[in-house]
Amino acid sequence: MSRVFNFSAGPATLPEEVLRQAAEEMVDWHGSGQSVMEMSHRGKEFMGIAAAAEADLRELMGIPANYKVLFLQGGASLQFEMIPINLLRGKGTADYVHTGEWAKKAIKAARIFGNVNVVASAEDKAFTYAPAQAGWKLDKNAAYVHYTANETIGGVEFQWTPETGDVPLVCDMSSNILSRAIDVSKYGLIYAGAQKNIGPAGLTIVIVRDDLVGKAQPTPPPMLDYKTHVDAESMYNTPPTYSIYIAGLVFQWLKKNGGVAAMERKNVEKSKLLYDYLGTTDFYRNPVNPADRSRMNVPFTLKDAALDEAFLKGAKERGMTQLKGHRSVGGMRASIYNAMPVAGVKALVDYMREFEKSHG
Ligand code: PMP
C-alpha cells in the first residue's frame, strides 16, 4: 500500500503513524473489547482519553492554568458566532482585522450581534499582506480584537502577535495552530477547527481565558454559552468522541517528535523550500508580500492557466494530490501542515521544476 502526498487545505493529511495506531486499536481499544467510537462518552475509558488529550494539548501549547480548553463542535464557523455572543459582554462593539476570506466571514457573523469596527484591511492590495499594527485604528472600548492568524485561502500569515493591551485578543488559528510557538497568555481566546493541523473534522478547539466566561449579555441559549461547556468540561452533550481520540493521538505524535518547536523548524524548512524555488522563476507566481507568506498554505498560479489541468494531472501521476487552488482564486495551493513530511515538499518542488522545463 502506498500513500499519496496529500496537499489538501483541510480535511488534511494526518501522520501515517497515527492512522496505523488507530487502525490497530480500531476493533478492540486497549483490551476493552470495543472501539473508541462505541464507548460511552461518560465511561472511564473515554474520560481518560479526553483528559489525556487536553493535558497533552496544554503541555504542547504551554496553556496557562487560568485558561479553559473546550472540545466543541460546529467548526470555526460556529465560533464566528459564539465569539460575539459571548465576548461582546454588553459592550456593543468589537474590533476586527480584515485579511481575507476567513476574516470576512468572521466579520459578517459578528455584525449580526453588534457593531464591528474594521480596524485594518488588506483589501487595498487584494488581501496579499498582513496589515502592520502601526496602522490599526483600535478602539480602547472595544469588547475584543479579532484577527485571523493564517488566511488559508490567501496564504497570508501573521509572523507576529498583535498587542492589544487590556482589550482581549481573539484569534482564528484554524490553519496554523500547533505549527509554531505562540504565547497563549497574550490571548483572550484562541479557536481552531481540528481538520487541518490536529485531526478529523467535527472537533473544534477553543482556548479561553477564564475571566471571559460567563459574562455574555444577554445570557445565550446553553449550547451557545461557553460557560455551559466550561462547567460540563465539554461533556454537556455528546462530544465528537472519535475526533477527540484521533486528536489525542496526534498530540502524542507531536510530543514524540519534539513538540511545537520541532514542528516550527520543520515548517520553516518546508515553506522555505517552496518559496525559495518560487523566487527563482516567473513561470509560477505567489502574490503574497514575502514577509507575510504563510508557512501552511502556499498558493501559486502558473504563467498560463491553460496549463493547470496538465499540471494537476502530472502531479497526480506522481502521487501528489489536492493541489488545485481554492475556487475563488484558481491556480494551485499546496497546504503543508505539520503532518506533511519534508519529502512531500521536495517531491513537489522537483515536479514543479520538471514541469517548468517541459512547458516553460
Ligand atoms: N477559519 C479558517 C482560517 C479556515 O481555514 C476555515 C476552514 N477552512 C474556517 C475558519 C472555517 O472552518 P470550519 O469549516 O471548521 O467551520
Automatic annotation (TrEMBL):
UniProt cofactor(s): pyridoxal 5'-phosphate
Keywords: Amino-acid biosynthesis, Aminotransferase, Cytoplasm, Pyridoxal phosphate, Pyridoxine biosynthesis, Serine biosynthesis, Transferase
GO CC aspect terms: cytoplasm
Subcellular locations according to the entry: Cytoplasm
Reaction(s) the record says it catalyses: O-phospho-L-serine + 2-oxoglutarate = 3-phosphooxypyruvate + L-glutamate; 4-(phosphooxy)-L-threonine + 2-oxoglutarate = (R)-3-hydroxy-2-oxo-4-phosphooxybutanoate + L-glutamate
Residues binding pyridoxal 5'-phosphate, per UniProt: 76-77, 102, 152, 172, 195, 237-238
PROSITE patterns tied to this protein: AA_TRANSFER_CLASS_5
Residues involved in L-glutamate binding: 42
Residue positions, PTM N6-(pyridoxal phosphate)lysine: 196
Source organism superkingdom: Bacteria
EC number(s) on file: 2.6.1.52
One Pfam family of this chain: Aminotran_5
GO molecular function: O-phospho-L-serine:2-oxoglutarate aminotransferase activity; pyridoxal phosphate binding
Entries under CDD domains matching the protein: PSAT_like
Summary of subunit composition and partner proteins: Homodimer.
PANTHER family: PHOSPHOSERINE AMINOTRANSFERASE
Protein name in the entry: Phosphoserine aminotransferase
Species, as recorded: Sulfurisoma sediminicola
